[in-house]
């Protein structure tokens, strides 16, 4: 709701009352987008505000952070970099940074941090809560969070929708927000024709969005790719730590893509680099997004199965979906899935949710898929699902009412990274998704919505530089790779691939159990290895594995009192770190 209010508050004064009315109408109903555009008379225009960037390249303007809730000692500001490293005439970009100085008397340098997305703003999160990163990064580095190109406070920003209504308004109640609708009892023919219609709608929506971007932002869109962000990290390391300083970095999820680009583009500049929750950067750079899911989702149904096993073991006190402790997990699952199917035929009104809307089957699957990312959310998910099954979907909707992106921040990274490809037909995309649905994961149609990378075939610009490998360089210092064994969106298999390519230049540490990136289920063992790596350069032994210190659902065997005060503080920090990784993307749920 904050985002909604913010969006309303942002309507420029020059907007006519008629526009405001339209805006409210859009928030409340938004069933008729075409009609809305006609009625409001607001068209995207090409007067994208050029940022007055007068300061010269290399300017570092950093001072104590201004807000009451900024951490003591934290510093805020920006670094001016070339907008285009290949073309000085393109002007400059201003990278917003937030810095938490080392806790030790002498700093070993900067560790740059990326929280994922792409599209995640890091600066504010770090200056307000970033001390939790020390659970992995240790005490002796300055933690440097920056809002990457096109994101957060960095300029130029991605503002495809800057002047009429938000991307959230545009998507509301379309397939891009509701997710794909179908029931599990469809015949293959019914399923294909149902998905195909929705895929055609998706294509039309995405073409509209990207054409809008072309008109509002034009060539400004081409500077947001990962390759350019690597150049920024290099530039900022030199500016902050000196010309010979090595680059240190920690990133999760999409941050693992940025990390792989970084070490392979600049192998001789690698200091300490750790990545967690691994996306295969080669797949990312080589294939259109709709061809990623067959590799992304190989553990999703595994994690989903663990949700029901954990629920059964824990019983109704922590998982009210179970009728009794030890109930057959398959029975619990059948009840939930029958309910979701029933939503296809009869959605439930939710007038008292944060945003009045309806609970559809696509939306319910999306909420589950999203909650699978973080095992500590599973008990709340089970409570929300139970309420929905009892007729009140507000809690489920409230908790999954996330607007990941204000605008096209995510696509402006993704689409500058992927190769140019001929627009696939709706049939081609549908068949690829159905293949994944049948052979890999039942959540593929939710992921299309929750990880919105689609539509790059309509991307209107070409980045100045696009790194495409090699991905197997010999690094100056080895990189640390972290992965959960049952990560529902960035599977262990991707981590194994990255490790295999880099050989002795990387060391993989696996953490047993579900969850997106290791911090989603805290483990003292994992944090010890990560800190030993950053602090002393010590790698975990080959084939090292850690266990989490918690189970997703509370278990009678795990009692907080078995931890020392210090251990408890570290576990608490890992939870904070996980929140930064997940919520930096703009999520407000669970
Ligand atoms: C959902 O959010 C609305 C608005 O914040 C609130 O009034 C309502 O009580 C919430 N419902 C539940 C079940 O949490
Ligand atoms: C699932 O995989 C099999 C074997 O590769 C393939 O023949 C089949 O067509 C796939 N299913 C779908 C729906 O594409
Ligand atoms: C890196 O990968 C390329 C392409 O797969 C291969 O040709 C090359 O031999 C590899 N280099 C090393 C050092 O392993
Ligand atoms: C780094 O090495 C020193 C000396 O062996 C050791 O005392 C310290 O605990 C190590 N630090 C971490 C974080 O592992």
Automatic annotation (TrEMBL):
<feature type="domain" description="Peptidase S33 tripeptidyl aminopeptidase-like C-terminal">
    <location>
        <begin position="446"/>
        <end position="546"/>
    </location>
</feature>
<dbReference type="InterPro" id="IPR029058">
    <property type="entry name" value="AB_hydrolase_fold"/>
</dbReference>
<dbReference type="InterPro" id="IPR013595">
    <property type="entry name" value="Pept_S33_TAP-like_C"/>
</dbReference>
<dbReference type="Pfam" id="PF08386">
    <property type="entry name" value="Abhydrolase_4"/>
</dbReference>
<dbReference type="InterPro" id="IPR051601">
    <property type="entry name" value="Serine_prot/Carboxylest_S33"/>
</dbReference>
<comment type="similarity">
    <text>Belongs to the peptidase S33 family.</text>
</comment>
<protein>
    <submittedName>
        <fullName>TAP-like protein-domain-containing protein</fullName>
    </submittedName>
</protein>
<dbReference type="Pfam" id="PF00561">
    <property type="entry name" value="Abhydrolase_1"/>
</dbReference>
<dbReference type="GO" id="GO:0016787">
    <property type="term" value="F:hydrolase activity"/>
</dbReference>
<feature type="domain" description="AB hydrolase-1">
    <location>
        <begin position="111"/>
        <end position="292"/>
    </location>
</feature>
<keyword id="KW-0378">Hydrolase</keyword>
<dbReference type="InterPro" id="IPR000073">
    <property type="entry name" value="AB_hydrolase_1"/>
</dbReference>
């Amino acid at each position: 709701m904050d985002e909604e209010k913010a969006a309303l508050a942002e309507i420029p004064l020059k907007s006519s009352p008629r526009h405001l009315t339209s805006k409210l109408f859009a928030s409340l109903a938004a069933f008729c987008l075409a009609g809305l555009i006609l009625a409001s008379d607001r068209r995207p225009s090409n007067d994208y505000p050029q940022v007055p960037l007068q300061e010269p390249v290399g300017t570092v303007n950093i001072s104590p952070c201004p807000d009451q809730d900024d951490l003591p000692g934290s510093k805020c500001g920006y670094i001016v970099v070339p907008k285009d490293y290949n073309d000085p005439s393109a002007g400059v970009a201003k990278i917003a940074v937030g810095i938490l100085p080392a806790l030790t008397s002498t700093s070993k340098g900067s560790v740059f941090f990326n929280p994922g997305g792409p599209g995640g703003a890091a600066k504010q999160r770090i200056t307000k809560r970033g001390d939790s990163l020390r659970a992995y990064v240790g005490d002796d580095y300055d933690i440097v969070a920056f809002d990457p190109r096109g994101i957060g406070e960095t300029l130029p920003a991605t503002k495809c929708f800057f002047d009429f209504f938000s991307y959230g308004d545009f998507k509301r109640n379309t397939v891009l927000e509701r997710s794909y609708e179908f029931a599990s009892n469809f015949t293959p023919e019914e399923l294909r024709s149902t998905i195909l219609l929705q895929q055609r709608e998706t294509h039309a929506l995405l073409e509209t969005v990207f054409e809008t971007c072309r008109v509002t932002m034009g060539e400004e869109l081409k500077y947001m790719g990962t390759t350019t962000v690597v150049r920024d990290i290099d530039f900022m390391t030199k500016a902050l730590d000196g010309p010979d300083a090595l680059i240190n970095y920690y990133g999760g999820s999409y941050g693992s893509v940025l990390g792989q680009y970084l070490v392979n583009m600049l192998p001789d500049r690698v200091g300490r680099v750790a990545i967690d929750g691994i996306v295969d950067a080669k797949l990312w750079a080589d294939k259109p997004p709709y061809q990623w899911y067959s590799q992304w989702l190989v553990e999703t149904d595994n994690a989903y199965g663990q949700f029901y096993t954990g629920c059964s073991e824990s019983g109704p006190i922590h998982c009210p979906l179970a009728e009794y402790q030890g109930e057959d997990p398959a029975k619990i699952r059948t009840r939930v899935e029958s309910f979701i199917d029933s939503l296809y035929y009869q959605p439930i009104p939710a007038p008292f949710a944060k945003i009045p809307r309806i609970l559809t089957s696509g939306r319910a699957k999306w909420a589950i898929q999203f909650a699978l990312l973080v095992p500590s959310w599973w008990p709340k998910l089970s409570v929300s699902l139970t309420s929905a099954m009892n007729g009140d979907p507000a809690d489920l909707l409230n908790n999954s009412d996330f607007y990941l992106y204000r605008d096209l921040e995510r696509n402006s990274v993704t689409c500058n990274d992927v190769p140019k490809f001929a627009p696939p037909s709706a049939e081609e995309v549908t068949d690829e998704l159905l293949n994944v649905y049948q052979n890999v994961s039942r959540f593929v149609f939710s992921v299309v919505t929750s990880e919105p990378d689609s539509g790059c075939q309509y991307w209107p610009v070409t980045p100045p530089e696009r790194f495409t490998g090699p991905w197997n360089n010999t690094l100056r210092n080895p990189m640390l790779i972290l992965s959960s064994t049952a990560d529902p969106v960035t599977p262990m298999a991707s981590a194994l691939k990255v490790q295999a390519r880099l050989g002795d230049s990387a060391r993989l540490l696996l953490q047993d159990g579900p969850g997106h990136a290791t911090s989603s289920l805290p483990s003292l063992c994992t944090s010890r290895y990560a800190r030993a790596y950053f602090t002393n350069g010590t790698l975990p032994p080959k084939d090292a594995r850690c266990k989490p210190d918690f189970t997703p659902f509370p278990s009678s065997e795990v009692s907080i009192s078995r931890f020392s005060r210090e251990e408890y503080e570290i576990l608490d920090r890992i939870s904070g770190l996980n929140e930064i990784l997940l919520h930096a993307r703009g999520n407000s749920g669970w």
